[in-house]
Specification:
- By secondary structure, the chain is α/β, with parallel strands linked by helices.
- A 5-stranded mixed β-sheet has the order 4-5-6-7-8, with helices on both faces. The protein has a 3-stranded mixed β-sheet with strand order 1-2-3, with helices on one face.
- β5 and β6 form a beta hairpin.
- It starts with a strand and ends with a strand.
- About 6% of the residues have low confidence.
Length: 155
């Protein structure tokens, strides 16, 4: 637990207690909570969270998972936009933190490599080249049978 020069409470988390810690922080302080977590651990936590998320009958479409990700990252205070137009198609999700811009392509019952291949073939990062932040490409595949992340690739 740290407090930065702007008064933000900063947690560095790599375990499965992310949700309860953030809820307690919001309950104890009115300060903005900033979560710093590396990309791999964040996706591992998300995989665990979605695995335990209540089953909904209509989860066999990519938009269901896109909506969940939008909600989760928005609640964590990140700028999130979906279906962002580029000259060669639409990026499923763009997530911006203070230090990094993430270009995310989602797939359902395919592979994360296919998602990353689409990012590269359509050169989605070019659309954000002037944002002034490092751009990280993330391909995520959801497994509708297990109702969670199947695999992911970060480049």
């Amino acid at each position: 637990l740290k407090v930065d020069r702007l008064g933000n409470v900063i947690f560095v988390l790599t375990n499965q207690h992310l949700e309860s810690l953030i809820k307690r922080a919001y309950a104890q302080t009115s300060q903005k909570v900033v979560v710093l977590i590396n990309e791999y651990d964040a996706l591992r936590l998300l995989q665990t969270y979605l695995f335990h998320h209540p089953l909904i009958n209509n989860t066999d479409y990519e938009g269901h998972y896109q909506s969940l990700l939008y909600t989760i990252f928005s609640l964590l205070g990140m700028y999130v936009n979906v279906e962002v137009r580029t000259p060669k198609g639409r990026v499923d999700m763009v997530i911006r933190t203070l230090t990094t811009l993430y270009v995310v392509e989602l797939k359902l019952n395919k592979t994360a490599d296919i998602a990353l291949e689409q990012i590269n073939l359509r050169n989605y990062p070019e659309r954000f080249a002037l944002c002034g932040l490092p751009i990280v490409k993330v391909g995520i595949n959801f497994d509708s049978g297990r109702h969670t992340l199947g695999d992911w690739v970060i480049e």
